[in-house]
Amino acid sequence: MDQTFTRIAGRIAYWAGQPITFVLAASLIVVWAICGPLFHYSDTWQLVVNTSTTIITFLMVFLIQNSQNRDGAAMQAKLDELLRAVEKAREQFIGIEHLTDGQIEKIRKVLEDECEGQPNDGGRSTAPHTSMKNLLSRL
After folding, report:
1. Cα-based torsion angle of the residue sequence 52, 19, 24, 5 in order, rounded to the nearest 10 degrees
2. What UniProt keywords are attached to this protein's entry (predicted)?
């Protein structure tokens, strides 16, 4: 079920992001608007576009969220691998995406404070790495 949904969601998201899809959607709205006088701008005429766009928007929200969740998880995995592979990287940062927003913001602030006043040496700083425990204790 997961693979089927992922495959279908990926294809729909791909096609939804194509220029031809935008042109098609805009064309449908133009056709709907042109039909207004034919239907005397009735409630049914308005209901057709309102219902259609609401249903499409409702379904697309879930597809977009699924796509963003997969992209975010893949990006985190790639970043975690880089942290693990780079010799001077702080491996304590692996998995910080599971912390609260407040904790992450505090870590970011501490890291910015650490960087203030240090010369830009292309990432070869000799400043000691702060452990995650030390980072959190300074918050």
Report:
1. -50
2. Membrane, Transmembrane, Transmembrane helix
pLDDT in tens, 34-70: 999 999 999 999 999 999 999 999 999 999 898 899 9
In contact, 92 and 112? CB cutoff 8 Å:
no
pLDDT per residue over 69-98, tens digit each?
A: 999 999 999 999 998 999 888 888 888 888
* Element holding 50 (H helix, E strand): helix 43-85
Would you call 107 exposed, middle or buried from its count of C-beta atoms within 10 A (0-12, 13-18, 19+)?
Answer: buried
Q: What's the rounded Cα separation, in Å, for the pair 46 and 33?
A: 10
How far is 18 from 74, CA to CA, in rounded Å? 23
